[in-house]
Design brief:
By secondary structure, the chain is mainly α. It has one domain (12-73). The chain has helices at residues 12-18, 23-28, 44-51, 55-73. The N and C termini lie close together (10 Å).
Length: 84
């Protein structure tokens, strides 16, 4: 199975819509992103900067949970996912 690529410019809202399991990544990193009214505007880059999380780490963690979801559902969404 190909691994999805998560883009740093995706908003929190886009990530959570596509991969609801990413909620756990935001909670694990002690962010207030899920449920925040700014999730419509904040990108993963903004989250990484605000919470002082390495962008690569944040994206890798989201990629891991999104890969699990894709494997379990057997689907992909070309709007947000690109394969390597």
């Amino acid at each position: 199975m190909d691994t999805p690529v998560i883009y740093i410019q995706l908003t929190v809202e886009e990530v959570l819509k596509r991969w609801p399991q990413a909620f756990s990544v935001f909670v694990k990193n002690q962010t207030n992103c899920p449920g925040c009214f700014m999730q419509h505007f904040c990108t993963l880059k903004d989250v990484a900067e605000t919470y002082q999380i390495l962008p690569e780490k944040l994206m890798a963690e989201i990629e891991n949970v999104s890969s699990e979801e894709i494997v379990s559902k057997g689907v992909s969404d070309e709007k947000f996912v690109q394969t390597r």
